[in-house]
Write a structure and sequence with these properties.
199 residues; globular; 6 helices; alpha+beta; 4-stranded antiparallel β-sheet
Length: 199
């Protein structure tokens, strides 16, 4: 059991961390992945990707509010973080993470969902048919960044056809054709802001 002094110190340290200044990134901005700490998404969505030696983008996943990301949490030499919407982030240097046990626990707890998301993306990339890959990607997006609306589940981020194509290793033209097919089949529809709604 902690002494009243240590409990008080821990309370104020956690309170200070909670009131950290938020960093704003506009949609499309690249986010610096400094090795001296990690980011926590406070609001918005971030896309993580890697760039191959041939310059192709490989999707690593998405980060939603309450989840941490940073260069320390990956083994890849080239990792890129991009704001998919207006994003507010909190920065945590390693010395702060080490000094607040609840924060350390929170960071470790977030690793499991990120691993599951990565496994799901790997399984999708192994599917032979492009149509199946896109359907499974939409199901994953529904789970990761979806919001229930009266007509289905709306993806909170407006993803381009190129974003989706990069995620499943196909062309933008193919994704456009398949999304049109899915609309005709009643699998998806678009809202007035062109966000995908999965029915």
């Amino acid at each position: 059991m902690l002494s009243p002094y240590l409990e008080n110190k821990q309370f104020y340290t956690e309170k200070l961390l909670e009131e950290k200044r938020l960093h704003l990134y506009e949609k499309g901005d690249l986010i610096s992945l400094n090795s001296g700490g990690i980011w926590e998404v406070y609001q918005g969505f971030v896309q993580l990707s890697s760039i191959t030696i041939t310059g192709e983008e490989v999707l690593l996943g998405w980060v939603k509010p309450g989840v941490f990301f940073g260069s320390y949490l990956t083994n890849l030499e080239v990792c890129e973080a991009k704001a998919l919407s207006e994003v507010y982030l909190k920065w945590y240097p390693w010395n702060e993470i080490d000094s607040v046990p609840n924060l350390t626990h929170k960071v470790l707890h977030q690793i499991i969902p990120r691993m599951r998301q990565t496994e799901a993306l790997l399984a999708i990339s192994g599917m032979r048919r492009v149509e199946d890959r896109l359907l499974e990607l939409l199901a994953l997006l529904k789970q990761e960044i979806g919001e229930k609306v009266p007509s289905g589940v709306r993806l909170n981020v407006r993803l381009t056809h190129q974003n989706l194509a990069n995620a499943i290793n196909t062309t933008r033209v193919t994704v456009t054709r398949l999304l049109g097919d899915f609309q005709r089949q009643g699998i998806i529809k678009l809202d007035k802001n062109r966000h995908i709604i999965i029915i």
